[in-house]
Design brief:
The protein is of the alpha+beta class and about 280 residues long. The chain has five helices and twelve strands.
């Protein structure tokens, strides 16, 4: 049977039957990352930087009482970016923070309710500078990341709950550094959010070495030691001073301010220097 030939777009649209196509739903999920100072309990030591992620506890099925990324369904009359901001505000009460799109996750069985594709975002913030109060079901979890050539282990701790995920890494192509992630252990995270979190960590590690994205997690004024801690926490390794200086050259400028107190010598404060 030959396909009908239309004489105009108006004729085509009048005859168009969208019910011939299967439907899917679209959601937006956001990884809110922070690297912020945590008190050590020793006034002679500088506060330590800790890597954290904001999770929300589900109050309904599926995955009731499990933790997930702030997420929700996108409305027909809003852009994906606008939806992500609205959903983050609704789920956590956070707004006006840095966000960028990460990846689209579309495994066929990622959600037991229906065929759902998720557009994921990364949001970055210094949680100690937040003025918004979190919703009661949202909680910051400190993350500890251990990675080798074969797998990634991430431990989550919010001082009330502690759990880990283990993700196997499979190189997609010998000519690239793109990996397929396979969940080996996950008992506390809903949907495919264990994979999403690992993908977000990998993207953040990659981007802080060639962009200025890290400064979205910094206060206005900071010491070079504090900035180096943030890089080291995200990268999961110590940086030699020459290597660190190469990374931040032309990204910061010295101020006339100094940091005092805490039982240590005063330190010169720097600030972010935007590209001209």
């Amino acid at each position: 049977m030959s396909e009908k030939v239309y004489q105009s777009e108006e004729e085509f649209l009048k005859d168009y039957d969208s019910s011939r196509f299967e439907k899917l739903s679209l959601t937006a999920d956001t990884l809110v990352f922070s690297v912020a100072s945590e008190e050590t309990g020793n006034y002679r030591k500088l506060p330590e930087k800790k890597f954290s992620i904001l999770l929300v506890k589900r109050d309904n099925y599926p995955f009731k009482d499990q933790w997930c990324l702030p997420g929700g369904f996108i409305k027909m009359d809003e852009t994906i970016d606008d939806a992500a901001k609205r959903i983050l505000k609704t789920e956590t009460n956070l707004q006006d923070i840095y966000m960028e799109q990460l990846y689209t996750f579309g495994d066929v069985h990622r959600d037991p309710r229906m065929r759902i594709v998720s557009v994921s975002y990364i949001a970055l913030v210094d949680k100690n500078r937040l003025k918004d109060h979190l919703n009661s079901n949202a909680s910051w979890f400190q993350m500890s990341v251990l990675e080798d050539e074969k797998e990634i282990q991430v431990t989550f701790d919010n001082h009330q709950e502690n759990f880990s995920i283990v993700i196997a890494k499979k190189l997609k192509s010998p000519t690239s550094d793109r990996y397929e992630y396979i969940v080996k252990k996950n008992t506390h995270l809903a949907f495919d959010h264990a994979k999403v979190i690992v993908c977000g960590i990998a993207r953040l590690k990659n981007k802080i070495e060639y962009t200025d994205i890290v400064f979205n997690m910094m206060p206005k004024y900071f010491t070079l030691g504090e900035l180096q801690q943030v890089y080291e926490v995200i990268l999961g390794k110590k940086l030699l001073d020459p290597a660190f200086r190469r990374i931040i050259q032309n990204k910061v400028e010295k101020t006339d301010k100094v940091q005092t107190g805490g039982g240590h010598r005063p330190s010169v404060l720097f600030q972010y220097q935007p590209k001209k």
